[in-house]
């Protein structure tokens, strides 16, 4: 009997034979089940027609490549898909467990979906400049990678509901408004309205795990565990059927020519137009409180951790008895008439934070220096604090340059053998600026606008400081 050699590992096949493939090649069962290798008949094996009610990618490792095939089908020409593939996708439905509810007699469905199902079936209708069609923005790679890191590292991987359209779908009730949304397993059947960046994060994570699996030839148990955890993740999803909505609108206006994409675009516009971003100062406060609670792994916080370190110090500067009491808007609440946004004050401290000496200070020492520094400023320019509306010092254009100058004063004090934590010593240096004009009517600072303006303001303060220092 002729020996059959595995075309993948080169060993004689003594057990189950798979093939033949192109050029009359065969593979052994071990290689066939290797998740890093793909063979077309894996599709039929993984998804036998009529044997699965829904797309189930939870435990079968070779389905990594099946997902890839779906993704390729979504991008390419469906006519090139193999006969096996066409048979599979024409006979299988995805069953999404949902709860039906109504808003103004428009049926909506809230349910859950797994990442593999989302990756296989989702698509976006991207804005086309030439055709003036579509509505979605491009995926932002950096944002996708942030979401990937969040999913990997954060102990609280909270993913808000994705909003999507399923044009070709039917609702099958099980009990009252509970049931399943059925739609053919086919690339593009789930059109993302809101959530493409989150979906992009799952794409990034899938490709990373797949790459790791392909690299390892021996113990892949940890990677397999990560993969299974990824596949079992449940994503909340709000679904609309635009065709049902169009039917409802036709009852009111039979001449209407509304298309599914028009419904989806309208949802997209309303969602993005009516959402208001969280105030930047409140974001800084929430980032600090989140880290203080011991919750880590959120990329938006991790990449600017220094801000969260400075927030409690700025909070202290705003308390009663502190030099900036009542002047800092900590959470961005309107109507408080506080001229200094916390987020701006924190941003203006970046040069000081990067100073080696200040960076090594404890939190108490950082607060002591800044409290002494701004107490000295208040002593030299009391009128600017008593009548803040008439002066620029406690506005962004004055606060930024003053905090930048704190680095020069700190370094000079150390050079002179002075104690930067001694308020009286700090005062003697700040006093050199006593002739600076901060009036909103006559000050040169009133012409300084934006980031470049604060840079010019700092240069003016710096020139004045060193000139007066040279004359003492």
TrEMBL record:
Superkingdom classification of source: Archaea
InterPro entries, per the entry: DGQHR-contain_dom
Protein's recorded name: DGQHR domain-containing protein
Native source organism of the sequence: Methanorbis furvi
Source lineage: Archaea, Methanobacteriati, Methanobacteriota, Stenosarchaea group, Methanomicrobia
């Amino acid at each position: 009997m002729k020996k059959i050699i595995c075309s993948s590992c080169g060993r004689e096949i003594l057990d189950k034979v798979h093939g033949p493939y192109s050029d009359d090649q065969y593979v052994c069962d071990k290689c066939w089940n290797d998740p890093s290798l793909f063979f077309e008949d894996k599709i039929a094996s993984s998804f036998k027609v009529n044997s699965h009610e829904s797309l189930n990618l939870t435990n079968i490792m070779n389905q990594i490549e099946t997902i890839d095939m779906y993704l390729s089908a979504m991008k390419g020409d469906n006519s090139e898909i193999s006969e096996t593939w066409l048979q599979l996708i024409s006979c299988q439905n995805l069953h999404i467990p949902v709860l039906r509810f109504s808003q103004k007699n428009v049926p909506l469905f809230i349910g859950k979906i797994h990442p593999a199902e989302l990756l296989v079936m989702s698509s976006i209708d991207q804005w086309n400049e030439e055709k003036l069609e579509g509505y979605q923005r491009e995926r932002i790679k950096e944002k996708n990678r942030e979401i990937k890191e969040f999913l990997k590292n954060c102990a609280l991987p909270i993913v808000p509901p994705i909003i999507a359209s399923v044009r070709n779908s039917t609702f099958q009730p099980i009990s009252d408004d509970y049931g399943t949304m059925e739609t053919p397993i086919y690339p593009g059947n789930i059109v993302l309205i809101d959530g493409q960046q989150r979906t992009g994060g799952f794409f990034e994570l899938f490709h990373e795990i797949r790459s790791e699996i392909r690299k390892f030839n021996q113990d892949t148990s940890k990677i397999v565990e990560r993969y299974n955890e990824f596949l079992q993740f449940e994503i909340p999803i709000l679904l609309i059927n635009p065709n049902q909505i169009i039917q409802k609108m036709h009852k009111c206006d039979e001449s209407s020519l509304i298309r599914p994409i028009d419904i989806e675009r309208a949802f997209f516009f309303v969602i993005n137009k009516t959402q208001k971003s969280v105030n930047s100062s409140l974001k800084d406060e929430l980032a600090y409180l989140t880290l203080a609670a011991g919750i880590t792994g959120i990329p938006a916080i991790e990449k600017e951790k220094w801000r969260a370190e400075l927030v409690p110090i700025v909070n202290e500067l705003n308390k009663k008895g502190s030099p900036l009491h009542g002047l800092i808007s900590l959470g961005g609440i309107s109507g408080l008439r506080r001229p200094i946004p916390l987020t701006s004050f924190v941003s203006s401290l970046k040069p000081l934070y990067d100073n080696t000496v200040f960076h090594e200070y404890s939190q108490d020492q950082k607060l002591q220096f800044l409290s002494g520094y701004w107490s000295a400023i208040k002593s030299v320019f009391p009128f600017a604090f008593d009548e803040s509306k008439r002066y620029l010092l406690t506005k962004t254009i004055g606060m930024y340059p003053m905090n930048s100058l704190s680095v020069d004063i700190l370094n000079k004090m150390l050079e002179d053998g002075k104690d930067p934590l001694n308020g009286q010593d700090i005062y003697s240096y700040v006093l050199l600026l006593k002739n600076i004009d901060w009036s909103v009517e006559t000050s040169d600072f009133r012409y300084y606008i934006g980031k470049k303006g604060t840079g010019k303001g700092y240069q003016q303060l710096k020139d004045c400081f060193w000139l007066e220092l040279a004359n003492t």
